[in-house]
Amino acid sequence: MKSFCVGTEIECIVNNKYNSDIEVGDYHDGIPLMIRGMESDSWFVESDSSLSSWNNPFNFPTCMEFVSSIARSKKSFFSMLSEFQERLSHGEYELNEVLHFNKSCGCHIHFSIKGFIFRKKVVYDVYPLVRKYFFKLLDESDISSKEDIKNHYFRNYALKLTKKSWENVNRAEFNLQDESRGLEWRGFNLLGITTWKEFYEMFEIAFKVLEYLYELSKGYEINKSYLINNKYFRDDLSYKLRSYNYNLNKDRDESIMETINLNLKNAITEHIGIRKRENININQDEQQDIPLSKDSDEIIEINLRRIENV
Fold it and tell me: How many other β-carbons are positioned within 10 Å of the β-carbon of residue 143?
């Protein structure tokens, strides 16, 4: 991947038998985690009222959220995770002796790529494929609680995206409402993770999923269009292919093909945007040739997104 940033928020229950000295800041106003007697610039600790210590194995539990700083490489991100492990485990305790992840706990991942706005680049069809890929990697893993993790993927602050509402839900599995901290993946979680080995394996899976998301998404744009008939089009969003990806231009900048063959049956699409003086009925089960003219304003744009089967 090109230049990217990644960070995480780990919600958990901490065993105070070994970590009673951790200071917890207010929600969204975390306190630096003390590591080897010094304030960490990688981890901050804050409270979260949504967390509950019910059904935990510790006599002295405290709910808290650990928020990482921004990492700009996979190596630096896993270095932060290693620092987190060292501090919580004191170099000797297994994860289940010092941390517990129950159903009130989540683990959000923030991901951004320089010059890449997911809201402007990624259509709905990509996200179910990404989710499916995450579940596939879980199934192939040795994670003991993988079924619990999959069952916990959708929850009240990680709602399943739908075609009808995917762009307007800020509590969805993928939060697209505010990308100031990157795309927020809320479905990811660590429910039932008990070993540091599984902890790292989960984040290895997360990185593979993020790389897959980027590979599916790059090279596309979402553009505003004027659509012609509400019977065929849901709203005013359409997807514009970069011409060099699908050879819509013979010479990229000059000649335009006389027709574009729309084989919608074999394409994953949500909208097809056409601006024309007269309505064109689109049948998604048939092929259709639509005439184009470079100098005419009859058709302003035809927008189609195709995603290869995985």
Answer: 23
Q: Which of 277, 280, 273, 275 is nearest to 304 (CA)?
A: 273
pLDDT value, residue 10: 98
Domain ranges in the chain? 4-217, 221-303
Which helix (H) or strand (E) is 88 found in, with range? Answer: helix 74-89
CB 130 within 8 A of CB 185: no
pTM: 0.74
Q: How confident is the model at residue 119 (pLDDT cuts 50, 70, 90)?
A: confident
pLDDT at position 172 over 50:
yes
Query: What are the residues whose beta carbons fall under 8 Å from the beta carbon of 209, sequence distance 6 or more?
Result: 130, 133, 134, 137, 185, 188
Side-chain-side CA neighbours of residue 138 (13 Å): 23
Q: Which two tokens stand for residue 151?
A: 């069952």
- The reported pLDDT for the residue numbered 226 is 31
Give the rounded distance of the alpha carbon of 157 from its chain centre.
14
Question: Distances in Å between the alpha carbon of 177 and those of 118, 174, 180?
Answer: 10, 9, 9
- CA neighbor of 89 nearest in space, from 181, 19, 31: 19
